[in-house]
GST C-terminal domain-containing protein
Amino acid sequence: MQLFDSTSAIWKASGDDAVESAKKEFVEVLKVLEGALGEKEYFAGDAFGYVDILAIPITSWFLASEKFGNFKVEAECPKLSAWIKRCMEKETVAKVIPDPEKIYEFVVNLRKMFGIA
C-alpha cells in the first residue's frame, strides 16, 4: 500500500514543492525495496517468487510518476530497475502487466478530471 500511495502522490501533487516532497518519499520507499532485493536476482533469491508477483504490477505506474516527478527510477534505484527489466523479460509477466504508456495516459486524464495542473 505504501508503494502505491507514494507513487500516486507524485502525480496527485500540485506545485513544485509538493511534487518534490512526494518524489522524495517515493524514492525512499523504492530504496527500502532495493535494500530488500540486495544482490539477489529476485526477492526470494534465484527464483521468481510470491513477492515478485505481488510487487511487479505496481511498477507499470512508475512511468507516470517519473514523468510528473521529472526523474528516472533507474537513476535513483538501479538494482530495482534491473529487477523490473528482469521480471518483464518473463513472458508470463509481460503478457499481463499493463502498458506503462497507457497507465500514463490514464493518469493524464485523471489529473484533468480532478483539475490538477
In short: The mean pLDDT is 96. Helices lie at 2-12, 16-37, 50-55, 62-69, 73-76, 78-88, 91-94, 100-113. The CA atoms of residues 10 and 18 lie 8 Å apart.
